[in-house]
Amino acid sequence: MPDKLGVAIIGTGTIANSRHMRALSQHPAANVVAVYDVLGDRAQEFATKWNIPVAASDLGQVLENKDVDAVIVSTPPFAHMEPTLKALEAGKHVLCEKPFALDPQEAERMTKAAEKAGKHLAVCSADTRCDASMRRAHELASNGSLGDVYHVRSSQFRVRGRPGIDILKDVHWFLDSKRAGGGSLIDIGVYQLDVMLWLMGNPKVKTVLCTTKMGIGDPAPAPLKQDVEDHAVVMFTTENGGSGILEITWSSNIAGANAFLVFGTKAGLRFNPLTYIKPGELNPRRASEEKVLDVPENDRSDFGNVSVQFVDAILAGREPWTPARDALEVTRVIHAAYESARTGQAVQLS
Predict the structure, then answer these.
(1) Among 90, 132, 201, 274, which residue has the fewest nearby CB atoms (within 10 Å)?
(2) Higher pLDDT, 350 or 138
């Protein structure tokens, strides 16, 4: 087994700097050998900053590079599919940023391309799986400690955190549905939907009902325009009888109400800190609570982030922690959620 993976970065925006290179630059198994961006000057600046030997002038130069074993696609959502397909066709493994795709057709096309090429395609929408508390929760859900996991609820509220307005003020595509695909749901709700389904055993989703709200807080300063939601509520059912509720916001007037709850027939889980809950032995009407893991909710100091896990998986010859097939199901749910919000009706998926 080789001890290093040759990696190329496609797209050199905020996420490439803050998520991928920050982690890979400290990971001995990662060797970032090339970078490409449609803005050539930005690619060169990125290469200089991170000491990357090649700042490619076009994508083909990256994909023809024999030192590149895998690529990380960290472009905006509307530009995920093309470089992903070309990289797979060139025989490279791919880690694609979230959201995976703007619609299920794109997601299906990329997933099938990876399977046809015999290459791994991983997706950053599953990044939350790397958290220590989430990994432990998945272990408990998988080994029967919770019984049948029949319902999951996630409520995640920012007070003010709208990209392009409150944060990341120079990145305006977040506010444009044609380029971003949507607002808070597809941007950060994608993380929660992934782990909700993951803890349930990745069942197929049957029905989706959604409502959205835009206009919480001061509007985008002129000449910027926002046509994506600040707030979304998604309710879904699964083919195996399970259900889930997601509340997700970029902007709200609520604080201290975040929660992630897992309901099983034997026991349940509450996060932050991860707590195992079941009926008391002496009095079943009262809950017995056991702190399972007392670490910050997003602690991954013993494991690494999605980029590190991708590199390690490819070197080990195994499927990455965050496979495209799971992201395809999340894409189906999000697409159905937006359709439900538009029509005011539940959407049937299967």
Answers:
(1) 201
(2) 138
Q: Which superfamily, per CATH, for 5-127+306-322? A: NAD(P)-binding Rossmann-like Domain (3.40.50.720)
- 129-300+329-348: CATH number: 3.30.360.10
Residues 6 or more apart whose Cβ sits within 8 Å of residue 26:
none
Nearest-CA neighbor of 246 among 203, 329, 183, 185?
Answer: 185
Q: What is the pTM of this model?
A: 0.95
Q: Are 191 and 125 in contact (CB under 8 A)?
A: yes
State which H helix or E strand residue 121 sits in. strand 121-123
Whether residue 1 has pLDDT greater than 70: no
The 10s digit of each residue's pLDDT in 16-59 is 998 999 999 999 999 999 999 998 899 999 999 999 999 998 99
Q: How far is CA 98 from CA 74, 127, 245, in A?
A: 8, 9, 21
Query: Looking at residue 64, what is its pLDDT?
Result: 96
Residues of the chain with CATH 3.30.360.10: 129-300+329-348
Pair 185, 208: CB distance under 8 Å: no
Query: Residues of CATH 3.40.50.720 domain(s) within the chain?
Result: 5-127+306-322
**Residue at 244: amino acid letter:** G
For 87, the enclosing helix (H) or strand (E) is: helix 81-89
User: Could you tell me if 157 and 271 are in contact, meaning their C-beta atoms sit under 8 angstroms apart?
Assistant: no
**Who contacts 260 (Cβ-Cβ below 8 Å, separation ≥6)?**
152, 153, 154, 155, 156, 192, 270, 271, 272
Paired tokens of 144: 């029967």
